[in-house]
């Protein structure tokens, strides 16, 4: 079965996503990396669902896609507001919560 | 080839579809044609900027190959249609005859005609026991569209290398031209409605991107959004319609959940095995999609605004190909529409009415435009109305033939208008054009050829296709003609009226652009060869394309050369309804030609005689009479304003429908917010204050504070240490989160 290949693909995507979230300073790119992480999860769900011949995972994946769309909508709105207020979407400059 | 031959596909119900999985290699592998421009899209996207010509050479090369493949596929189809006598056909014929005996197959189409649509599918995905397929269904209309789309796309690619030369998003432009071509080609070969829906959305996105190509200017991005959102309205109809059909087919097939297959849906509808109510509802929903995509009346308002895009885009997407996707979809799902709207034997239905109204309203609006591209946009709306009307009256072949000829002459006109605008840097006919005849002879000649073809004078392309539509209405029956699927006299009247209007507004457009004196600045020059050559190719096709479908009984040519287009394009299969064909009528052809000539004569008299004389008297190049009808008669003025305001439809949509919805919703939400939610919150707050005071004195001060102060000191100390990791940067927190998750995962693995 091809399961391992899918899991490896998902793991690679997840790792790329984590790298992006941690290392990129551009707000939009961080959002895109979050999408990568979510899609890595989707691949896992669909792959397991295909192996076990059930639809549960695929339905979950559809839900995740819908939620991810909403999430990125909110996220982009935040980035837009950030840009309006600061003329920059560099996340490194945003540290008002520093203790 | 024997091993490839399988028996003609039959459904679970044993219904013969008249499709085969045999056929020549090219017909089975038509997916290659959309794949090539898709490849070109990816190539240009990733490597375009590094190529010497910004990726346009890759686009032209791959679309060129796709065009050659389409031509070969067309040749293969012609061979298949006339000579294919493979083993599976005989079996299919036998099967069809069996079912005809049982009273199943719709008229036993396949029996009489040993030629079958070529079908090739792969499994797309499976959900439990329902299998979704993707693939190609290659038959006459699909092959015709493949040739038209690749040809116009190739010419537009060549034209664009000059038209958008030096643009800052040159590479991006070609990438999306390729993606659009790929999506449109995928749409025309789609085997099922789901795939059709996907490619339908893809062409919509490409249209959005290309209309907004110069998005820095607000009107352009507004136009792109308007096109996209208006199409969303119709797409809802498509989704609902496709879903209804899926379940309707499922209910007719024992043991099947549903089916997206176009051939199966049409065949079942044609055999009368689907509920008429479901078909009617589905047809109405799909009609909404056609209204938005093909610019039919009520949802046509986006198409004129879409002219904000670059002119090659207007020619390719908003004249020749994407806007006919709706027409093509009706043609593809004709079994459904034919039954759903009961087209045969009727005298009016929704589709014919919408088409007829669209031809008229579009043509009227074309009279009051200053922008040359908007004249052509409204003309496109009007001609699309012709096609939808033709389908609505059952003149299937005439509609597809008009689609075919219209693609050439309208692309020619659009590219010609772009050539003129390129020279004068404006699209405004009244203030910046005029007299271009002397400066741009090639553009002038090709534009006039395109206009005559559009107006429909013999022997140019538009005459033959328009006349077939008029014949197909069957309305001429009152005057001694014959044929057609019903007595659509009302549609005939609208069609003939539009013919006169079309001739008149194109005369106006030619006068304002090419005659009189030049009213712009500087001296315009003829465009270069990469613009002029595509113009002449399209003009040449606008002259000869009509000869492909000479009417039956035409005296000058042998019978084997008559109705070639109809012979090869119209499917002969169980999935296609049995429509009857009108008989061409000399009297109708002569009458419609006279009507066109009278339209030209009236507009010509106004512009070439009256305005010309007034210009001489005034000593400057005028665009209208200073004391015309609108300045003398208030009623005419009102009519003019009504047209200039585009029937106030934009006001209706933005102010009344959108404004009327969002105002009350906001007011209601505000009221709920103020009265209900705030009330609850306030009451809760007041009660909480009372309870709080009580607790404060008895319990808080004594017990809690003691504990709090102690723990406070402890946490203050801990906080002092921990604040060092609180950098406030979200990515540091994320790093800690991921690190902790990794550690926990590690522990989990070690323990379990």
The rounded distance between the terminal residues' Cα atoms of chain A is 51 Å
> How would you characterize the largest beta sheet of chain A?
none
Number of E strands of chain A: 0
Task: Please state the structural category of chain B.
Answer: mainly alpha
Largest sheet report of chain B: 3 strands, mixed
* Percent helix range of chain A: over 70%
At CATH level 2, the architecture of chain A is Orthogonal Bundle
Protein described:
The complex is a heterodimer of chains A (about 100) and B (about 750). Chain A is mainly α. Chain A has one domain (about 5-85): Orthogonal Bundle (Helix Hairpins). Helices cover about 80% and strands about 0% of the residues of chain A. Chain B has two domains: about 1-455 and about 460-555 and about 580-590, no CATH class; about 650-750, no CATH class. Chain B has helices spanning about 25-30, 30-45, 55-85, 85-100, 110, 140-165, 170-190, 195-210, 220-250, 260-270, 275-295, 300-305, 310-320, 325-330, 335-340, 350-365, 370-390, 395-425, 430, 435-440, 440-455, 460-470, 490-515, 530-545, 565-570, 585-620, 630, 635-645, 650-720, 730-750, and strands at about 20, 115-125, 130-140. In chain B, α13 packs antiparallel against α18, α17 runs antiparallel to α23 (about 490-515) and α18 runs antiparallel to α22. The radius of gyration of chain B is 31 Å and the shape is globular. Chain B starts with 18 loop residues before the first strand and ends with a helix. Residues about 1-10 and about 100-115 of chain B have low confidence and may be disordered. The interface between A and B is medium-sized, with 16 and 15 residues.
